[in-house]
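Quick question, first post here. What does this chain look like in 3D?
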Amino acid sequence: MTAFDAFAHAQSLLEGLDSLDGLGDRQPPAGRVRLYEPGKAADAAARDALLAGVWSALARPGALATNFRLVESGRQIDRSRWLRSRVGDGEVLHTALVPAYLHSAVERGATLVVSHLEALDERVMLLCEALEYLLHARAWVNCYITAGDNSAFDVHSDDHDALILQLHGRKHWQVDSRVGARSRDLADDSLDRVLTPGMCLSVPRDTAHRVSGTGDLTVHLTVGYEPFADVLEETRAAHELAGRPAPDPGREWLAARLAQRPDRRAGASLPSALTGEVQPTTRIRWASRFPPYITTDEDHLTVTTMGRRIRLDTRLGHTVGLLARGGALTFGELAVRSDLPTTDVRALVAFGARNDFLICEG
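> Answer (accepted):
Ran it through. Tokens below.
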């Protein structure tokens, strides 16, 4: 899965949820429970790539022991039974799963939880970054694997919004229709569905839900996200220190603040940055994990991204806007869609690669 594929899949998921209840200008799908059933071959390819990422993450050495939990009947099983760890290379903690005990526990209904899967596999990381960009949100990915028909967790709610991506097998979800109720008893009209591979479920924060297996091996990802979370926390903390109540910031102000964060997507532009050369097939994408904040005046285009302000000629506005959408374009596609001469597009891409606000790959 390339960055281009991951971004297209993230768009497909959100557009599927959008078609049910309307995301407006790509607001996070909060406010009610939503379900998306894919119908594209590309969705199946993306699902298979993510599932391959799960198996790869389980097999790779060097993951932290804290990335893994084994939960049975609401209680964690001691890691010493199913995980081997050793310290090497200074303070690096190497881990390896113990297959015999793990298989037995999962088959009788225990759930293996892999936290922050995006840190263990590039394919999952690319999807996580794409969703962050589209939702203006800090996001992370946990994976849940079980083979029983019981629930490792009782009815509970989470303090963050979540997207559930079913990758393998079938999982039974019951989600309270009363968003924010945090009830231990689900309402009669709650969602009650068995998710099959490719389906995506949106669960708003503080919404009670119960999850259980269907007797088959099942794997799903939970993408947790908090829109503008860090920015809001920083704003509230600053006002508390000053001894005054925090205002209710507007979306534009929040977007401007988010663009000041230094967070960068994974990827390198070293060859293009050094030589200034790009090929027609070179894929180009914005480097920031969050959208840039763009303002214009009579003479200049001011782009705030990753904590830096970049002043450009206003004639570059349309081309910069194409790149700032977040997906990947080949240089050939960008040149065709741009309203600039090809030489000017090439100069902009070279400038972006040298100044690290564009990633050029291939």
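The radius of gyration is 22 Å.
Residues 3-21 form the longest helix (19 residues).
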